[in-house]
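This section describes the prediction task in plain terms. A model, or a person checking by hand, is given the sequence of a single protein chain and must write out its three-dimensional structure as a string of tokens. No templates, partner chains or ligands are provided. The sample shown here is typical of the held-out split.
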Amino acid sequence: MIFFDNGLVNFDNSEEDPIHEYSGSDRKEPRLVDGVPFMVKYSDKRARIGELDTSYVNNTLSEYIGSHLAAIVGLPAHKTYLGIFHEELVVGCENFLNDYEVSHEFSFYMRKKYNSSEIGRLPKYEQINDVIKSDSFLKGIQEDALQRYWDTFVFDAWIANFDRHKGNWAYIYNRIDKSTRPAPVYGCGSTLYPALSEIGMQKVMSSEYEIRRRIHVFPNAALLLNGAKVGYYEMMASGFDNYCTASVKRIVPRIDMIEAERIINNTPAISNVRKQFYIRMLRERKERILDRAYKAVISGNFDLEARDRILNKKPFTDLMLIEEMKREGKQIVKVDCGDVEENTDNTSKRKALKRGKGL
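The expected answer:
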């Protein structure tokens, strides 16, 4: 592997890989680096939405940083490297499978149990439990599978992941010993607010309201319960799911902001503005969502209002945030930061974004 002086990998020295293929919506291609298979993922090009947006969504940076942050909380993740390929910024994701292994996304197991009309992009809460507890390959690792899902859920709450859809986690089957295990964490491209430009990041950091809006109001988790996406805080602090509660107890104490800052500050080719924004939002999310949820579950004093919002599909709204900040005597400063809410499973909304249309 050849590195440039700035720490980026030179993927132009890689070779075509005629064997492997990788699914997903992002532009990507299989490459061989020193004989090792990699998936090279490009930044997602898109039309501009006003001066605050970028011509590239920062999904490559999110994928790289997200996979490195996973190690802090003890989650295995695929190895990622930022690099240059055909004069574009890319992220190289090392293939984590041996020759005798195969990876199946969660959607593969869903199709064995449900008709296509019952399967959406985002999994339903009850579907996750039903599939893991009933599938012949998964029920033998039921405890490990559910633990990994909820450990990843808590981690996603920290890194603001809005798209852990049914194709963004998987299980590995070993052809030799016939065993199945959870795959390493991958698919972190929709974390750390990838649609924000650096101008937008500066605007968010200038307003406590805009910061808290991107913590409490959006993004929500890519998990449907009673037909709506659940809020991260609501699920973690309410005691709704015992596995989730156990994961909050296990994962939150492992979060080390000093190590997170080291990872971000050592990320090659990103600006000081971006570093400041990532660190600020990770710290704010930890303190305002995860630490509060941890306090609730450790004390046993679960947040009943959060539970009510889950059961009755009453998400935490902008109005609720404004009322909360007014009670605290805080100033409400609204700023157009150029990003959008990622709280719905709405295909037309995603298409509108790609066409550059406002919402």
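For orientation: Residues 47-55, 344-359 have pLDDT under 50 and may be disordered.
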